[in-house]
Amino acid sequence: MSDELYRLVYYSHNTVTGDADAVEAAIISILAKSQVNNQRVGVTGALMFNSGCFAQVLEGPRSAVEEVFERIQQDDRHGDVSLLSFDPVPARAFENWSMGFVGASIGDAARYGVLVNGSGFDPAKMDGDALFETLRGLAMEEEHAAD
Ligand code: FAD
Fold first, then answer.
1. pTM for the whole structure
2. What is the distance in A from the centroid of ligand 1 to the CA of 29?
């Protein structure tokens, strides 16, 4: 059934060139667009940028998640998009976020997260569940910090 709730996890490699300001501007623009688009189609999730990689969780009705991911794969601001998991789930993990940014602040992620292997973060060594748990853990830390 196309309306069943699905969760998709992928990672990709940044292809935005230029200095940290250029990367920061790209991430801000991606997030702003994501929040508007995802809210419209009932998709929620989280995005992280670290060690030159994006990692993202998308959750929502299957057809909506597929459509959003189709567009994401065609975006030339990143490449080598690797799908780790796409499975039905009983409930959303990021239900308050049309697209939240987790981990370091966007500025710090752009400044320090471009260092490949700089933090030891390597999504290629993780499966979908592990990457999902990483993003969910960071999201929970941020929600508690905001309390
Ligand atoms: P428009 O914003 O009108 O864009 C039209 C085209 O231009 C698209 O092909 C777009 O890829 C391209 N484009 C737009 N701005 C730039 C730019 N500054 N540089 C290069 N190309 C550009 N979109 C979502 O809707 N939801 C998400 O959760 C989401 N997550 C993303 C995560 C990552 C890591 C990346 C790189 C992109 C993500 N995007 C997401 C953006 C997505 O790839 C599309 O750019 C966006 O969905 C297109 O929105 P639109 O159809 O309204 O077209």
1. 0.91
2. 9
Tell me how far apart the terminal alpha carbons of the chain are, to the nearest angstrom: 38
Which residues, judged by CB distance below 6 Å to any ligand atom, belong to the binding site of ligand 1? Answer: 12, 29-30, 33-34, 37-38, 47, 54, 56, 58, 68, 71-72, 74-78, 99
Tens-digit pLDDT profile for residues 87-128: 999 999 999 999 999 988 888 888 876 655 555 678 888 999
Q: Whose CA is nearest to atom 2 of ligand 1?
A: 33
Question: Length of the chain, please?
Answer: 147
Half-sphere exposure of 129 (CA within 13 A, CB side): 2
- Architecture of the domain delimited by 5-146: 2-Layer Sandwich (3.30)
Domain extent listing, the chain: 5-146
